[in-house]
User: Fold these one by one.
Assistant:
Number 1:
Amino acid sequence: MVTLYVLLVTFYLLGFYTMLDMLLYGRTLVDAIRLLFDMDISTGKYFLLFGYASGLAVSAVIDMRRKKSGRKWDGQPR
Amino acid sequence: MHALKEKISLSQLFFLIISFQLGTALIVGVGKEAAQDVWIAFILATILGVGLIRWYISLLFLYPGKDLYQLLEIAYGRKIALLFSFLYVCYFLHSMAFVLRDFGELIVVVVFPNTPIEVIVLTFSLVLAYFAYMGIEVIARSVEIFIPYALFFLFLMILFLAINGSIQPYQLRPVLEHGIFPILRTAYPSLTTFPMGETVAFMLILPITADFIHTKKVAVWAVACSGFLLAGMSALRIAVLGVEQSERTTFPFISAIRDISIANFIERLDALVVFVLLLGVFVKASIYLLAALKGLEYLSGIPYRRFSIPISMLVAMLSVFLAANYAEYKKEIGTIQQILWDLPYQQGLPLLLTIMLFWKHARQKKKGEDAHGQSG
């Protein structure tokens, strides 16, 4: 569930930025996405993607632990 | 869902609002359109800012103990409230990304020119995630400890500028050179949305203040104090740099402080500015993060602390992704930010909320009176 919400917010905001890029600067969808994830080694965007992936991994672990324990979020049994 | 047990005192709230308002606004130099009359625009914006915070608090007073998301539910019902809450979560995260980007840009320019901005925002986001995990009480206590230092450093900077002879009040003249309209346009919407209207995030913090009944007075004083402080600092900026140089530089306050050179010994006081900025950014970003996390807690029913690491990592990524370069970033922070984000979430949705809440409140009151009349 945590992962799902994180992904939902990610897609909404990245989608918004992509749309803004297209409307403001006349870029195509492909160009806007390419610019967003411009993987030039000098830009250091790798760090960010690694950070985001780590955050997502943490959320997946939280979800799996909760599922395994068979308890609700408030600690009550399901 | 975990019960809300955290409480902050009125003095902590006061310092939180002051640091939040000063935040990045002090350093990045806002309101450049009003030229040397920016301080007048700030005073007008402060009056509007006081009106805004009074408005937000009056909504909270209708249903004491309820925060923004719960008020949305009372006004529109659960389903529509979920949609609006999600939009507010995105707004808070987007605003936090802007704060982080400002911070990253300044640190890269002033302190670490060879370090990628990505590393700076990522590491700072980790600190913010930790603070969000610890909760509002820890953030408030930290601010209580650090704000005297920040205010002392500000005082020290003004004193050094005065001793240095850098303050030239004639640069503030002529007053109203281009008439009143540029000032009014700067005051509204520019300065009213940034930084005054950003107090909408406090609709999530105010309900957990220990002495809720007195929050209105404290919050109004805090907004007024920070507004007048910003007006004074912007006048100081112009008096030191002049209008042209102030408009050209990215971080005018830093440029003004770099002017200090007393006996060739007290120089390069950038570190003091960075300290003040760090405190402001820390408070602003933490409050935004906390407001967004509480929204996610409301949406999902999962305790907000679980989201702190993944969401702060996401915001670090967004802060760099939101604009390809600094020129695009400046363009977006201008009109686009105001029209698409600030105005709708700071004034549009609260206006709709006000209409609905007052209507519901009046209807409930009328029902209560009718029932009382029938029983009597």
Note: The mean pLDDT of chain B is 90.
Number 2:
Amino acid sequence: MSNVLINAPKTAKSGELIELKALIMHPMETGFRPGTNGRIIPRNIIQRFVATWNGEEIFSMAFSPAIAANPFVSFFVVARQSGTVELHWTGDEGFDVKEQVAIAVG
Amino acid sequence: MTSRAAIALLIAAFAASYALAQGSDDKRRSGYQDMGEALQKMQDDDSANPGMLFVQLGRQLWDKKAGSADKACADCHAIAVMKGVAARYPAIPQGADTPIDLEGRINLCRTEQQRGAPFPPEDQELLALEAWVAYQSRGEPIAPPDDPRLAPFRAQGEALFRLRRGQLDLSCAICHDDNAGKKLAGATIPQGHPNGYPVYRLEWQTLGSLKRRLRNCLFGIRAETPAWSAPDYVALELYLMQRARGLPIEVPAVRP
Amino acid sequence: MSGNGTSCHPERSEGPLKPQERSLAALGMTRRRTVLSGALAITVVPLSTASATPDAMAAVVKEVTGGAAVREARVKLDIPPLVENGNAVPLTVSVESPMTEADHVKAIHVFNEKNPQPHVFDARLRPLNGKAEIATRIKLNDSQRVLAIAELSTGEFVSGSADVIVTLAACVEDPS
């Protein structure tokens, strides 16, 4: 089950600079913390975040365990054509979540 | 499973409302006012507030059928009706004679209406549902009910608030009344108001209940923590809500 | 990870123990040990865990730059100088750049000196980002310097840094 919050404008003018913000529910367990039994809790992090616009990569980020739990990322992009922005998070334990938003550019 | 459309992203900007209230004789401060600007911004911006992930999850669960009765919360309650509810809990449910908190209320619906197993303490779904309900009261002033039956429980809560206990021999009041605003190590001691719960606490890296916070404090002063089901927590919450009367509900609040 | 085991010490510690508390304290060896081990369980980093150091950071910086010179310019870190909890520290990195085909930021790398690992994140940008600015939230184990290095399309590396004081939580939580 995924839980994602994306903040993106629904519409933009061609050539307009827009900001995309995304939050995703994830523990980002570092792999350096001992649990209550004294043993290290295994690492469980998101490793990669990729954003595409109509299939073309517009931004990507490699995470380390130093990214806070429930990761937040914001970045900018110039709106060029109407279409779909897809955000894709992948990580440990087979974590694989995609989410899309439509942006109309005119 | 996102449902962005259902939750309007907005800037809550409690800073502005608290600034307006300044200058009055009321010396009460929300924990929000003791945070740095960066954390206030994190709380105010719904697209950055990590608590909103739980509000969204709660919204989804509200509509989801559960239990052997196969009923959803939404089958009985329009969510709009929940406005103000979090501002007046704990309360005594119909047919009962002792008060319950909002989590207790949700679990009562869970067992009696949905005919399912109650959520255990700090269960993510319970916190998410509570956050979704309390979110409806965001900005509403805390307004404890006038029900006279609550008075003895509230008095018991106040007594607990003033009770010195633990190896450090401290009471809630010593820190949060007498020394609020001073520093404990690098942290400002807040007045300890309950207006943001369930709260996204950075120390927890997740959403947590007032009960969890109270247990933290008890552990901090090296005192015994009553069982999760103990009536002490509801009594304390009744007193804390009375003490915070009029402060706005900030759910989902962010705290360090 | 942010607790240091400090308990809630009041500045005023009043009066002798009441009788029932004295007896509790006498009984309390086992209990105290439980409490202590509880506090330690969430604070002690095992000795075997390697930790980032300024040297380790310099080494990974070299991996990224291939030993090329890094000029301190154009990179700005927006991070609170006094952090109330190191578990989620808001960080915005911006690089002065026209973001054109001829002159843009290709990557932004962020490092730290004192977490268990020196890497924080690596972001890839391109001209269509229009503005070389990204924001996220990071974990900081301790007060330290955070360094951001931007790789420019011209092959140049520029950097910026910020010193951050991370305050420790005064009250630790029972992990059980």
Note: The beta strands of chain B are 183-184, 187-188, 199-201, 206-208, 254-255.
